[in-house]
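Please check this.
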Amino acid sequence: MMRKAILAAALLLAGCGGGGKPGGLAGLEFKPIAPDVFAVVIDPRADVAKTEAAIRKQCESKPSCSVVGWTDPAAMAHAYPLTDPQTAALAVRYTRDGLSGTDEMMWDCVRFRAARAPCIPKA
């Protein structure tokens, strides 16, 4: 019994399951898949506004930058360009181009109903 309580406390402190706040960003890890293109896996319960802020922060120091994100780690790309199945599985896509002033965040609006950004077109 004591062992279960210690494990539950450790998970809670780590922000994993067992009563932790849903949608945490603690595990958000941006992986480069091409020059200035990053892939990330996001929690399907992620807070949209906090996730958008983290994505924009990833790109803030770069003249141009893209972030592509999935909720399923198995669907995540490890190289660019994306395959058709990787594109279909996208949960979020962000593009920033400092030269043209483009700053576009697009979400899979079916999975992330709270997203106010434009929706990723689905084929």
